[in-house]
Amino acid sequence: MRYAMAVDTKKCVGCSDCVVACQTENNVPIGYCRDWVVEVTDGTYPQLEMEIRSERCNHCANAPCVRCCPTGASHIVEGGIVLVTPTECIGCGACIASCPYDARYPHPKGYVDKCTFCEHRIKNGMSPSCVEVCPTKCLYFGDLDDPNSNVSNVLRLRKYKTLIPEAGTDPQLFFLI
Amino acid sequence: MANRREFIKISLYGAGILAAGAGTYKVIKALSKEEEEEIKKLAIDLKRTPTYCEVCFWKCAGWVYKNPDGSIWKIIGNEDDQNCNGRLCPRGTGGIGMYYDGDRLKTPLIRTEARGKQVFREASWDEALTYISEKMQKIAKEHGPECIALFTHGSGGKYFGDLLKAFGSTNIAAPSYAQCRGPREVGFMATFGEGLESPEPTDIRDTKCLVLIGSHIGENMHNGQVQEMSDAIDKGAVIITVDPRFSTAAGKSKYWLPIKPATDMALLLSWIHIIISEELYDKNYVEKHTYGFDQLKEAVKSYTPEWAYGITTIKPDIIRKTAKEMADASPAVIVHPGRHVTWYGDDTQRSRAIAILNALLGSWGRRGGFFRPETFEMPTYPHPDFPEPVRTWRDAFPGKYVLADLALANGICDATIPVTTRDCSFKGWIVNGTNLIETLPNQKQTIEAIQNLDLLAVVDTMPMEITGWADVILPECTYLERYDSIRTGPARTPQIALRMPAVEPSNNSKPAYWIARQLALKLGLEKYFPHENLEDLLDWQLKETGSSLEEMKRIGVKTFPRSADDLYFSDDEEVEFYTNTGKIELYSTSFLNEGFDPVPTYTAHPEPPEGFYRLIYGRAPMHTFSRTSNNPYLFDLMDENLLWVNPKVAKQWYLKNGQEVFLENQDGVRSQFPIKVRITERIRWDSVYMVHGFGHADKKLSRTYGRGASDAKLITNVMLDPIMGGTGMRGNFVTFILDKAETEVAS
Amino acid sequence: MREEIIVSGRMNAMVDPNLHIWHWQIPLYLFLGGMAAGILCIAALYFIRGRENDYRTAVRITPFLTPVLLVLGLLALLIDLRHKLYFWQLYTNIRLQSPMSWGAWTLMVITPVSFIWCALHIRDLFPNWDWKYNWLKAIETFFNKYKKALAWVMLIYGLILGIYTGILLSAFNARPLWNTSILGPLFLASGLSAGAAATLIMSKNKEERKQFARIDLVIIGIELFLIVHMFMGFLASTQVQIDAARLFLGGPYTTIFWVFVIMLGLLLPAILEILELRKYHIPAIIPAIMVIFGSLMLRFVIVYAGQASRWLY
Questions:
Q1: Contact A90, C90 (CB under 8 A)
Q2: Does A96 lie at the interface with B, CB-CB under 8 angstroms?
Q3: Inter-chain touch C1–B681, beta carbons under 8 Å
Q4: Given the DSSP bridges, would you call strands B455-460 and B428-432 parallel, antiparallel or unpaired?
Q5: Strand locations in chain C, DSSP E?
Q6: Which of C287, C261, C280 lies closest to C197, judged by CA?
Q7: Rg of chain B over CA atoms, in angstroms?
Q8: Is the pLDDT of residue A113 over 70?
Q9: Residue B446: which residues within 8 A CB-CB, separation 6 or more?
């Protein structure tokens, strides 16, 4: 079981619904976010191209944040989801510094927080909150080990990329281009 | 030996401590695991109540989920709803911020000093309502009840509208008409015999070619349309975007036409010319359903692509290619009518051109083009007839704007300023759910009008610029705290949606229905509001349709079958259009009768002078006008607007990214607050762009006060549409002021 | 032109617009720990080589600073934690992949060791010290018997303490400025030179002072060598490393680095010590304080500048 998410940059309009839905679902304090939207424009007017991406923790298979955690609070559960146990976290911030995607943030309560792929929802058979709310349906989530899951299908049919693969973290968030 | 004994003792003690420690640790871990389970127990459905969103006019139906303690947790779309298909937009998802915003109006307020000084005292509901009713009666006695007008944008408009009609005035205006979609309603009515309404019946999900000329879907978050555009992209539809700015939609388009601002009419006329001259139009459709083809052909004879190239800077072969793309996709093609079309004063004619183009391509009433929406007919509870008003707003403009089908908000505003040529003016305004200061262009005139009022009563949820000028402020509770009328459509299939309160109104706020009814009681109009509680009226209405309030509370949305299988024209259908000729008028007889051009013509519009740039404004998907800028969730996403400046322009002015500048327009009006510069290639060098709805001047908006700049303040040159009175707002030019401004704050 | 922006208003505290998750507490601890490591390593090394009597200050007196340094360092670390009540979780796990875990356990070992080492030499400060309790006297005898083993423990854990902080930072490949294997040896060298400088200040023995001045000089040379190669490595590497190096070559940290770390912390003390060895009369305390200051500033600059270096946006 290997959970992954694919973001269709051709359909994402950058509305940031995923950001506010995650905030309300997971009680993310205002001023913090677990996911965000990046807009890249290339060229000179009027020869222009744009890519819009909804980004979050990549739940890397080779996660530096898990390796550097001194207490094991940062851990990987079944399916490859990277989670933080708040009561084991000492708030040292090493994992925040170790993430090349800057996906983690210090929760005001003291522990470190980040996207959890809505683990509390997927273990009840629902999809992550961002996937469910996205008006353009540009987010795909599922099990990569299942060849019939919609993530596997869309990765088979479309070209895709990951962010800074050279950082060597083996991210599980794919961007369809 | 003593050492060894000591050593063993210490070791045993140490081991004992370690064991006890491990044991305690295990217990703590178990306890904290429980705590973690509590934190994580979010997925299970708790209580939920149905509602439909009020953040914008799309009114997506949704479910409000609550925490175990009864507080609002989140709001998710209703899966059965045709407007949102279970997915709310960011404003809808963040709508709970409206409820939680600490800056909300909490209690009725009455002004104690001069208008604009913003000094109020708290009052009870009874006192505030008595004040308003007494003033209303005074105005009715001295001038007539028609001299009271209602400005509304939202669900409360129904009740205040009924109140005003019962009182004797039909002067009810929504700024969304003459400041937004008015011209296209009149343009399409003149062509097809009917307007577009809201939401527009665009069949985007099945279209093969979507032409966006003056529409920035993706940044304007018309939920259903954004969703359907995504479906269209999945199906490989061609998107053609015409915009001087590289919008989000342009980023997803096969063709982006970076048109010179104010020249869209030339492009449209040229497309019409090509489609006619190269015989790319839907011949059957045109022959069967349209009138005036030959006159149209004659009129557009000279509008060649080469002619258009000189005006629009779009190359002729691109104009031809895009026309061909449209024709190839016909009838599954949509030339999108846009929404905020009040640009240069010839907007009704430009909308006519778009309507004509759609008619030639045969998209009206066809799959992938425009469908025929159906609104559910909710029964009205019997009440006595409304009195006939002696005067309407039209009497203030004799002979003008005959073709406008709804009241003009700016017209009422104009007619509030006394002039010698008019024997009476408006004396009282009731404003509900619209921030007139930021909505109507030419703020100075709006303020002058307000100063001439005997009564300005504002009903709103948040302190906005308009509340600062009010005599009485009545705090309305948010949509999450009240019942409202059943939402009835229009949609592909008739559908009704219920709004019920998720929580009790907070502080001392009240629903609009209650406020309107209380005023009615004070004015002696109780027979028009027989139900004390709105839910009793809703229950009666629903029972008349075979449903009930109890059922709607459970399902939220109920869909009914269409009255006929006529979502699209059928091939042999004899369609009757509500025009003079009974057909689609490519050559408009109604315009001809009123003395306007029956076929649109091109007018050149003023260009920015040296050192000035055209002020273009638009929307962001996470905000609705100026309404949401203080919403804590949405403020978190976007806390201020930025001024888009082309790098060439930035270089000329030595501007750096993020630098704050003040803006001054062609009439010398300066922005009150500075705005940060965003240097981007996405905007043309003759224009600057900003998102509308920022630059708030009301200090009570603790988050958004002073953030960004207000485009509305800089829109002082209004280009009036002679056909229906729409206020064209894109004829304003700004220059940069790089040192501090000294303008006094006058809210 | 490429324009890459975050449009959803991301402003996570201490992460945006630049990472600043670690403030003064961390560089302070790095300095205190590094200096303590240097002192303990030198003390252990000379003791093991039997030079205890030649360098009495280094082996017996200067280590009295270390319990203070280590306790203050630990306090700084504790203050830095954001979830302080759970700090004990550090000691319910040993995670070999996490340099921070090594550090926690190393400190757990070396802090008591430093206390013990001081206790063994307490009579150098208080000649009439009496342990009073028999079990304390028994412990003293025990450790005096196994002093060499203790010294070895102190040496090894001191080296780990001195080098692990550099390895900890260099393991963060997400911060290109730190992602160089030179950082570990650089921090160790800097710690050793600070430790040597401490002895330089405290010693009354001229021969000892001369020896430690020479040691300092050699270590400064090594540090400069490492720094030069660090820059060469960055500038020859990928774009993110070049951008990281640029922080010191025209970027916001240029002045602080070249003035405080290189000039005042390395070059100037080196020059002063060379002059002193050439018999010019320079009070030894000046270059020593400059070296210690430079060691502190090196930590600050590296920690702050490292957080400013990044891969994205």
A1: yes
A2: no
A3: yes
A4: parallel
A5: 2-6
A6: C287
A7: 29
A8: yes
A9: B413, B436, B437, B440
B2 shares contact with chain C (CB less than 8 Å): yes
| Res B23: pLDDT | 62
Question: From the CA of C144, how many Å to the nearest CA of chain B?
Answer: 15
Q: What angle do CA B104, B108, B110 make, to 5 degrees?
A: 120
Alpha carbons B516 and B531: distance in angstroms, whole number = 12
Transcribe A36-83 into DSSP letters.
Answer: EEEEEEEEETTEEEEEEEEEE----TT-HHHHT-SSS-EEE-TBS-EE
d(CA C306, CA C21): 11
> If you average pLDDT over residues A71-78, what whole number do you get?
95
Pull the structure tokens for residue B82.
């045709």
- The whole-number average pLDDT for the span B653-660 is 96
Which parts of C152-284 are beta strand (E)?
A: none
Q: Which tokens hold the place of B233?
A: 């992209």
A170: left (phi over 0), alpha (psi -120 to 50) or beta: left
Q: Nearest to residue B55, comparing CAs of B180, B160, B153, B196?
A: B153
Residues 6+ away with beta carbon under 8 Å from C139: none
Using CB atoms within 10 Å of the CB of residue C201, give its burial: 0 to 12 exposed, 13 to 18 middle, 19+ buried. Answer: middle
Q: Which of B43, B226, B683 sits opposite A135 (nearest CB)?
A: B226
Max CA-CA distance within chain A?
Answer: 53
* C25-308 CATH, one of 1.20.1630.10, 3.40.50.2300, 3.40.30.10, 3.30.70.1060: 1.20.1630.10
What are the b/e assignments for C73-83, b being 16+ CB within 10 Å? bbebbeebbbb
Q: Which tokens hold the place of C44?
A: 């252990």
Give the span between the Cα atoms of C96 and B499, in whole angstroms. Answer: 57
What is residue B658's three-state secondary structure? Answer: coil
The fraction of chain B above a pLDDT of 90, given in percent, is 89
Residues of A in contact with C6 (CB under 8 A): 36-39
Read out DSSP for B273-303? Answer: HHHHHTT-S-HHHHHHHEE-HHHHHHHTTT-
Name the residue range of residue A112's domain.
3-176
pTM for the full model?
0.92
Which of B4, B6, B246 to mutate: most C Cβ within 10 Å?
A: B6
Contacts of B430 (CB under 8 A, 6+ apart): B132, B148, B149, B150, B151, B160, B164, B457, B458, B459
Question: What is the distance between the alpha carbons of residues B476 and B498, in angstroms, rounded to a whole number?
Answer: 19
- CA-to-CA distance for B562 and B374, rounded, in angstroms? 7
Note the Cα A83 to chain centre separation in Å: 12
Number of domains in chain A: 1
* Res A26 pLDDT > 70: yes
The Cα–Cα gap between B3 and B373 comes to 96
Yes or no: say if B719 and B646 are a contact pair by the CB < 8 Å rule.
Answer: no
Rg (CA), chain C: 21
Other residues' Cβ atoms within 10 Å of the Cβ of residue B315: 14
The alpha carbon of residue B638 is apart from the nearest alpha carbon of chain C, in Å, by 5
Chain B contact for C130 (CB, 8 A cutoff): no
Is residue B34 very low, low, confident or very high in pLDDT (cuts 50, 70, 90)?
A: low
CA–CA dist C122, B117 (Å, integer): 77
| Number of Cβ within a 10 Å radius of residue A33 | 28
Instruction: Report the CATH number at residue A88.
Output: 3.30.70.20
Segment C37-55 mean pLDDT: 93
If phi > 0 it is left, if psi is from -120 to 50 it is alpha, else beta; for residue B70 that is: left
Q: A68 contacts in C (CB within 8 Å)? A: 97-100, 168, 171-172
